[in-house]
């Protein structure tokens, strides 16, 4: 049975983005995948909690797709996490609504991959920066997959961006159509590496 | 009122009402419909009207006068200046080329040079009425072919005036007064002096128009009586025409100049929509007259000659246009559209031919034949275009997409129209403009309009609820219509007209209160902005803040209030026709709203924002009386 995928997309200035525009162009318009543009829906941060909960319940895989701002997500996605993942619903006593679902992040960072090392400029690895997200997902009894990250966006040439967009499209297609081997996936740091290792040439 | 007048009116109106819709139905232009109805009621078919067809044409020529006034009005000098190269390039080459090429066969026929020249000039005209209407109906106005056709027609429209002035110079005999009983003041003067006087009269219209008419119209506009404005518009055209006739000049020329003079005034669009219906009817009458006066006896005497001439003239016009299109680098399919579209002889030919006849340049027989030729050529255009669409265009491959960047566009419309530019509408317009979005504005306050024009806004002056004004402002082409008129009644009328005639147009409507909003909802509008909601909520939020509430909590309450209120409104609107239910529902809604707000208050202003509510989270986690190790650290915020 194919997976139902929900992309929660957060970009406050999407019209000026280079990389994310290319990525989003790849999102197929077909049943089973929902592209939900948060900044377009809630320009005043007035999130409709009930509607968001319904959306979550109707999907199996949830993707937080956003640029990496100050080692975290854009403000509206944080607002979304704050408001939608309610106690007694998503976590805590009786909070089992999301149990068993899969969450992953698709990120773009300005800095290169090398800077996200202990000896690099940013001093911490991506996994370390993403620990709060990982734990949020865990607390809601869901599975957190390693992220798909496009590093060094400041220096990407159009051809590089196109190549990354192809990877992105392949990943979405795989998530939609293939059963996920979660223990195997979590052995990778990045989903990018998993794609490289498994993608047929 | 004598019964003769009534029976005549009955014949004309009935013929038009029956024939024009039929002509439209089978894809011909209304001009053809009028011509056909003229032929049918004329002496050669049903015989309802006899020789008075000629007389009626004299009355109906006033329609041509009005058309020239309107053409003048549309010649916004600035836009005209932008198009000058295209107009001059396409226009001069078409007029000169066609006239010269037609001169040759005419001279071969043994005609005199003045006669050949007068006829060639008349036949070089194309039909503005047919071509512009066809282009608009086919949605081709913005293509290269459309723009080029417009340039040619505009040049011809302008060229008619000097041609009318020059024709007397071609006359070999003394000029006879155009109509018996009209003794113009210029009679008996030499031709060169008459020509000078033509230009002198034009100058005087300019001066009077600028310094006399505009202030007068302003006074009339302030009375607020629409029929008075219509009356003054008509008075203006009639007066100019009468003055021109008094001095023996062309009324058409005078009204054209009057139109140009007023094109820059704030009354342009008001005048346009006031004169338009009269022009339409009188032009229709004119074409009926033409149809009725086609002499079928002449045609039946020499059908071969007429057919040959029609083909010759159309072919000549077509080839000249095709060559021009090539020079100006029109693509094949555009060029064919352009050349075939303009290949007929236009309505100005009727005027020029009958004028030449009056000047005795042209004899009655040839006037009759050429008039018939003109009418026949008009009927060929729809057939030629159909043939082009079916057989020619498909062979020349890709059709050029409508080129938005065409710099010479005169009639480009903005994507957004704002009706009502008072304090409400102007705020919208300013914010849009600050973001590079120019809107077309409709307003009926002439002082306001003048100011906005100075600021460079594109403003249409007049009553926005009138369909013709909406049409000329481009409501058919716009993507967004913002109805922001101060008076809720007028605004609702406007929205009603819009939803009826432009069902695809997206409307954002201003409403004063919830009762206006109900009515707008019933018309199918979904984007409704109540002045009494958003500002009031904003004020209330600030009030809460002033009273010591946390600003963000107050803001959240405001957001929620608007949401509940709009949801309640939608529910009510659907059940509004049942009055008892409405009253009940309204009370229920208010109670519902009160309850919601009350609950919010009971829950420390954050009933919906559970995750931020430390008390709520603590109750949820500890209320179950269970030690919980998986509590997220929300308590930090609550402190």
From TrEMBL, chain A:
<protein>
    <submittedName>
        <fullName>Glutathione-regulated potassium-efflux system ancillary protein KefG</fullName>
    </submittedName>
</protein>
<dbReference type="GO" id="GO:0009055">
    <property type="term" value="F:electron transfer activity"/>
</dbReference>
<dbReference type="Pfam" id="PF02525">
    <property type="entry name" value="Flavodoxin_2"/>
</dbReference>
<dbReference type="InterPro" id="IPR003680">
    <property type="entry name" value="Flavodoxin_fold"/>
</dbReference>
<feature type="domain" description="Flavodoxin-like fold">
    <location>
        <begin position="4"/>
        <end position="167"/>
    </location>
</feature>
<keyword id="KW-0560">Oxidoreductase</keyword>
<dbReference type="GO" id="GO:0003955">
    <property type="term" value="F:NAD(P)H dehydrogenase (quinone) activity"/>
</dbReference>
<dbReference type="InterPro" id="IPR046980">
    <property type="entry name" value="KefG/KefF"/>
</dbReference>
<dbReference type="GO" id="GO:0010181">
    <property type="term" value="F:FMN binding"/>
</dbReference>
<dbReference type="InterPro" id="IPR029039">
    <property type="entry name" value="Flavoprotein-like_sf"/>
</dbReference>
Automatic annotation (TrEMBL), chain B:
<dbReference type="GO" id="GO:0012505">
    <property type="term" value="C:endomembrane system"/>
</dbReference>
<keyword id="KW-0633">Potassium transport</keyword>
<dbReference type="Pfam" id="PF02254">
    <property type="entry name" value="TrkA_N"/>
</dbReference>
<feature type="domain" description="RCK N-terminal">
    <location>
        <begin position="413"/>
        <end position="529"/>
    </location>
</feature>
<keyword id="KW-1133">Transmembrane helix</keyword>
<feature type="transmembrane region" description="Helical">
    <location>
        <begin position="306"/>
        <end position="324"/>
    </location>
</feature>
<keyword id="KW-0630">Potassium</keyword>
<keyword id="KW-0406">Ion transport</keyword>
<feature type="transmembrane region" description="Helical">
    <location>
        <begin position="31"/>
        <end position="50"/>
    </location>
</feature>
<dbReference type="InterPro" id="IPR004771">
    <property type="entry name" value="K/H_exchanger"/>
</dbReference>
<dbReference type="InterPro" id="IPR006036">
    <property type="entry name" value="K_uptake_TrkA"/>
</dbReference>
<protein>
    <submittedName>
        <fullName>CPA2 family monovalent cation:H+ antiporter-2</fullName>
    </submittedName>
</protein>
<keyword id="KW-0050">Antiport</keyword>
<feature type="transmembrane region" description="Helical">
    <location>
        <begin position="56"/>
        <end position="75"/>
    </location>
</feature>
<feature type="transmembrane region" description="Helical">
    <location>
        <begin position="87"/>
        <end position="109"/>
    </location>
</feature>
<dbReference type="Pfam" id="PF00999">
    <property type="entry name" value="Na_H_Exchanger"/>
</dbReference>
<dbReference type="InterPro" id="IPR003148">
    <property type="entry name" value="RCK_N"/>
</dbReference>
<dbReference type="GO" id="GO:0015079">
    <property type="term" value="F:potassium ion transmembrane transporter activity"/>
</dbReference>
<keyword id="KW-1003">Cell membrane</keyword>
<feature type="transmembrane region" description="Helical">
    <location>
        <begin position="153"/>
        <end position="176"/>
    </location>
</feature>
<dbReference type="InterPro" id="IPR006153">
    <property type="entry name" value="Cation/H_exchanger_TM"/>
</dbReference>
<feature type="transmembrane region" description="Helical">
    <location>
        <begin position="6"/>
        <end position="24"/>
    </location>
</feature>
């Amino acid at each position: 049975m194919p997976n139902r995928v929900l992309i929660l997309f957060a970009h406050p200035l999407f019209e000026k983005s280079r990389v994310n525009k290319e990525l989003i162009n790849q999102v197929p318009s077909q049943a089973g995948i929902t592209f939900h543009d948060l900044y377009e829906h809630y320009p005043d941060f007035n999130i409709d909690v009930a509607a968001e909960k319904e959306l979550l319940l109707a999907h199996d895989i949830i993707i937080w797709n956003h640029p990496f701002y100050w080692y975290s997500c854009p403000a509206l996605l944080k607002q979304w996490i704050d408001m939608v993942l309610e106690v007694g619903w998503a976590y805590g006593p009786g909070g089992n609504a999301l149990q068993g679902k899969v969450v992953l992040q698709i990120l773009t960072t300005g800095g290169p991959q090398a800077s996200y090392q202990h000896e690099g400029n940013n001093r911490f690895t991506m996994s370390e920066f993403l620990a709060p997200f990982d734990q949020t997902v865990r607390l809601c009894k869901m599975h957190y997959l390693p992220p798909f990250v496009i590093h060094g966006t400041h220096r990407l040439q159009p051809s590089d961006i196109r190549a990354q967009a192809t990877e992105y499209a392949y990943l979405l297609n795989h998530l939609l159509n293939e059963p996920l081997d979660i223990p195997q996936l979590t052995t990778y740091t990045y989903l990018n590496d998993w794609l490289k290792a498994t993608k047929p040439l | 009122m004598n019964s003769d007048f009534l029976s005549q009116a009955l014949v004309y109106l009935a013929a038009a009402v029956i024939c024009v819709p039929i002509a439209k139905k089978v894809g011909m232009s209304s001009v053809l419909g009028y011509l056909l109805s003229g032929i049918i009621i004329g002496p050669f078919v049903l015989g309802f009207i006899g020789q008075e067809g000629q007389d009626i044409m004299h009355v109906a020529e006033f329609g041509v006068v009005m058309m020239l006034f309107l053409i003048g009005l549309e010649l916004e000098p600035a836009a005209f200046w932008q198009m000058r190269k295209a107009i001059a390039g396409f226009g001069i080459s078409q007029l000169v080329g066609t006239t010269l090429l037609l001169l040759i066969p005419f001279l071969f026929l043994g005609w005199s040079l003045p006669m050949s020249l007068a006829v060639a000039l008349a036949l070089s005209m194309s039909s503005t009425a047919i071509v512009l209407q066809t282009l608009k109906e086919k949605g081709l106005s913005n293509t290269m072919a459309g723009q080029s056709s417009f340039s040619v027609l505009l040049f011809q429209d302008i060229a008619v005036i000097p041609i009318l002035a020059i024709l007397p110079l071609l006359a070999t005999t003394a000029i006879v007064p155009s109509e018996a009983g009209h003794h113009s003041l210029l009679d008996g003067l030499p031709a060169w002096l008459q020509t000078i006087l033509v230009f002198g009269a034009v100058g005087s219209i300019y001066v009077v128009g600028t310094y006399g008419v505009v202030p007068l119209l302003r006074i009339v506009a302030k009375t607020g009586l629409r029929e008075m404005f219509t009356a003054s518009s008509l008075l203006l055209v009639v007066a100019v025409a009468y003055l021109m006739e008094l001095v023996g000049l062309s009324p058409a020329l005078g009204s054209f100049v009057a139109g140009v003079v007023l094109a820059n005034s704030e009354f342009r669009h008001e005048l346009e929509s006031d004169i338009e219906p009269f022009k339409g009817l009188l032009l229709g009458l004119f074409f009926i007259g033409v149809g009725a006066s086609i002499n079928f006896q002449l045609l039946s005497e020499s059908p071969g000659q007429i057919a040959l001439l029609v083909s010759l003239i159309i072919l000549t016009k077509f080839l000249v246009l095709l060559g021009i299109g090539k020079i100006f680098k029109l693509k094949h399919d555009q060029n064919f559209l352009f050349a075939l579209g303009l290949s007929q002889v236009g309505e100005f030919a009727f005027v020029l031919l009958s004028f030449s006849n009056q000047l005795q340049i042209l004899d009655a027989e040839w006037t009759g034949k050429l008039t018939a030729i003109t009418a026949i050529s008009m009927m060929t255009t729809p057939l030629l275009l159909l043939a082009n669409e079916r057989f020619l265009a498909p062979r020349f491959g890709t059709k050029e997409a409508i080129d938005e960047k065409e710099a010479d566009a005169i009639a480009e419309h903005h994507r957004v129209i704002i009706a009502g530019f008072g304090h409400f509408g102007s705020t919208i317009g300013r914010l849009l403009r600050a973001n590079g979005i120019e809107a077309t504005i409709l307003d009926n306050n002439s002082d306001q309009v003048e100011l906005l024009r100075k600021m460079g806004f594109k403003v249409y002056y007049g009553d926005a609820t009138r369909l013709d004004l909406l049409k000329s402002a481009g409501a058919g082409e716009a993507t967004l219509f913002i109805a922001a008129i101060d008076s809720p009644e007028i605004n609702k009328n406007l929205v009603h007209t819009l939803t009826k005639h432009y069902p695809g147009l997206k409307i954002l409507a201003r409403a004063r209160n919830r009762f206006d909003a109900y009515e707008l909802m019933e018309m199918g509008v979904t984007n409704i902005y109540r002045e009494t909601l958003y500002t009031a909520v904003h004020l209330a939020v600030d009030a809460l803040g002033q009273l010591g509430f946390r600003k963000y909590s107050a803001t959240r309450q405001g957001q929620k209030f608007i949401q509940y209120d709009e949801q309640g409104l939608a529910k009510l609107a659907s059940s509004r026709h049942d009055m008892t239910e409405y009253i009940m529902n309204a009370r229920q809604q208010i109670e519902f709203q009160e309850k919601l707000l009350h609950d919010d208050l009971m829950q420390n202003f954050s009933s919906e924002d559970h995750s931020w509510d430390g008390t709520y989270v603590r109750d949820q986690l500890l209320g179950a009386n269970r030690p919980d190790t998986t509590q997220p650290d929300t308590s930090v915020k609550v402190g």
